[in-house]
## 1
Amino acid sequence: MAEGTGLTLEHAFREEWGAVVATLARRLGDLQAAEDAAAEAFAAAAQAWAKNGVPPNPGGWLTVTAWRKAVDAHRARQAAAVDPLVLSEIAPGEDTVRTQDGQQLGDDRLGLIFACCHPALALEVRVAMTLRYVAGLTTKEIAAAFLVPEPTLAQRLVRAKRKIKDAGIRFEVPTQPAERLRSVRTVVYLVFNEGFAATSGAALIRDELCEEAIWLGRLLHRLLPADAETAGLLALMLLHHAQAASFEATDWPQIALLYGALARLDPSPVVEVNRAVAVGMADGPLAGLAVLEPVLASGALDGYSPLHAAHAALLEEAGYTERARGAWARATETSASPALREELLRRHEKS
């Protein structure tokens, strides 16, 4: 492989996977066929780009190649999964793919999001579908984020794709998008959250996912500029909360109050973990441990590394050194992120 091609292909996967799948899904009406064709296109790119160099428009090259692969697969099966009239327009289709602008690509990806967030699918499946097919995360990365075994998540994705196909769900923005918008907003935020606190990879923050979520948020805001919650979501993703002059000057009591309000509006064990840290900073480690104890006792987040890291930090601050060492060890064991695991191991050894 030519020097740099592997890195370029990896970059193209992150940048173009969602766009290629979205465009093919809209034209084929079949997400599995779109995914298969996209995978074949990337495999072809690994060989062709190593020999001939990276094309000027990698996304266009991948999309055209994927479309040809999809057509070839259809003809080989001699099935009716794709309308023959669509296949007869292969030449105009290629031109369209080459020349489509950012508006069309944006609409395709937005249409894919709305399909992945269809109310016929369970919420956790909607999020997983969007992370996989729009944001381009691997099944392993999503499984780590959801705290479920990888084979379990893979089966959920397979069933969801089959359900979308069988139900005839279209890969386009619905005529009344507000009905499905809450689910879409939730998904976009969770994509951002995965980027801001990465569950895997070499970096603690995955900038490309944060940027992807912000880009998707802008698309939603452009679609419904008068929707206050969509504007609020975009504002939240763009806002930097590190406003204090120093760590010591951080207004922890205010943060604890805000987490208390969030816990009342949208209670969850994860919110309680975050609230425990804020309370611990505002009112002392024993107060934070009191908030955290019910979450630990429930066992609901036993495989959630941030829970054990928060527990360890609060125990350490309270002077319970031996218990803190055990909690740091558990946090290290349950972390899926190499970068975070390295930091947790350092804290464990230091304690």
## 2
Amino acid sequence: MRRRPTSGGLLAAALLSALGCAAAQGTQERLTPLVNPTAARVLEFDWPALRIGIAEYAEGPTGVTVFHFPRRALAVVDVRGGGPGTVNTDYLRLGYESPELDSVVFAGGSWYGLESTTAIATALKDDGIRTGNWDNIALSVGAIVYDLGARRFNEIYPDKPLAQAAYRAARPGVFPLGAHGAGRNVRTGYLVGCNAYSGQGGAFRQIGDLKVAAFTVVNALGIVTTRDGRAAACYADTDSPRELRAHEIVARHADTAARKPDRSAS
């Protein structure tokens, strides 16, 4: 005969469940931001009009990269792709007269990381840089990448404290390269089995008075290649040649997939 659970057993189960929920909800609050971490490779450049702050949660790992323009900047946006995740970018579409912004934010955490963008706007107001007047509202725009799922054992995301720590530590002329900031836990080549860690990258060049900078966080399903078509990075099979061209990787992946047994009926 099956015994009916006692009220004491139900109460204990309820308490354990509540404690488990509380622990899960408190995970973010117990985290300590790692701000402007030491990087093996750093892009250094001369552009005082732009300040960059990096902050990470090592427990994720995940992070955020903040580009702050102390005197604001004119901007335009081009959002593409099948799964975009952005905040406030509509205001930067062509057609508006004054697309001035204070900051651009890149973050991990997928859509959960979008609060990093609005967190910078509230920090600008709280610090007295912007106000509540209609013509002095802080404008922060941002985009996220997906760094959750099977690549790590938790669902920690870049949140408001992390983003504001990065903003308040922003400095000019220094950009960490590799697995830092929003690029702390990104990969490339998942579509064809590479899964190589990538990170964030940057480049700067000055020609006369003209300054051009480019910053990226690469989390592509496809393969990043060099100009001659070779994979820039790929965790290839042990029996694969060390240097593979992109079309060779795709062909090998397609051949492997075709030879896998069909277990759909099992």
